[in-house]
Design goal:
By secondary structure, this protein is α/β, with parallel strands linked by helices. It has nine helices and six strands. It has a six-stranded parallel β-sheet with strand order 3-4-2-1-5-6, sandwiched between helices. Helix 5 links the parallel strand 3 and strand 4.
Length: about 260
Amino acid sequence: MVNQPNLLSKINKQRLPCHIAIIMDGNGRWAEEKGQERLYGHFHGVESVRDIVEGAAELGIQYLTLYAFSTENWDRPQPEVEGLMGLLVDTIHKEVPILNKNNIRLHVIGDMSMLPEYAREELQEALQMTATNTGLNLIMALSYSSRWELVNAVKNIGRDVQAGKIDPETICENTLQQYLSTSQFPDPELMIRTSGEYRISNFLLYQLAYAELYFTNTRWPDFRKENLYEAILDYQSRERRFGKTGQQIQEETELT
């Protein structure tokens, strides 16, 4: 791997993605490959979270969404789920002072009603303690699935139609976007998935419509700033056309 300073120097700071989303995959397999319990991998994955959040903040990334726990993850063995909840609460408790020191604001998306009460209380306190920070917006997707989010949005739109707050004829893409749990954030421009899987696994299905997708074989516990830099450089090498032709994009660039 090219060393970190060289990678960092190659990044065009004027063409950074505003919002990066990451599927942090491979914790359990990383641990099993080392002959350890799966929770050992999740524990070491926290170090990667800390490093990537720091790297994103240093670069000036405005939004970073981390897929930490899906609604499907509740079906994992009970000891692993309980261990993950304990790790979540302990990590948040320890990291809030660091988030505040670095002016990072924490957000959470997902079905919070599924979390144990002690986890919800710890999260709520962390959200309040970082609410006035103005730097990187760190969005944790917890007990989240995109299908849950979309169904929930449709239900709420239906209720507002029934209540006369919305005319069905006026419903458009912007209407749906306003009812998503990510309504206050721009859509991700770059989605990274670690550990060699080529799926988006029920993650931000609507929001990733025009995101650049980047897959790496690196397991999440081994993912560090230099890996993030590689993903951003790959992103910057691509032409984002949004359905237009390359010539149209070039002409629009020349006019700006």
